[in-house]
Amino acid sequence: MTPCVNGFPGFERTFATRDDAYQLMVSHVKNESLQKHMLSVEVALRFYARKYGEDEELWAMTGLLHDCDYEEFPDLREHTQVSTRWLREAGYDEQIIYAILAHNDRNLETQPRTTLLARALYACDEITGIVAPIFTPFLNILCLLS
User: Fold this and answer.
1) Domain boundaries defined on the chain
2) What pTM, to 2 d.p., does this model score?
């Protein structure tokens, strides 16, 4: 966590870094395919943050963390509920927490996808889940040939 002084005397707040988010992800996700999926969503969200003039680090961390409880809590009634508790306790931004909750269809009544980040996460989660498995074998072959 990186300290950030807000401008008020004696007030200091810590913000999570990408490395903090990565460490949290790998501490809960051991499945390599799920890790790759989360890294893919991170990259896609970073691209869209840049395209829409949004906070790249915040959007990227959202993608990196969006499924960090799924391996341990695959039941959709628990998925996202557990990880957002972890994130709140660790002081992550509420925008990240909201978008992660909104990407689970079971939470739409209380967390509708009203923010650009929430909609982007939902879309990138779906598309990377389809595209990555198709292109990964080709990328592996290209790496071997180079």
Assistant:
1) 17-145
2) 0.82
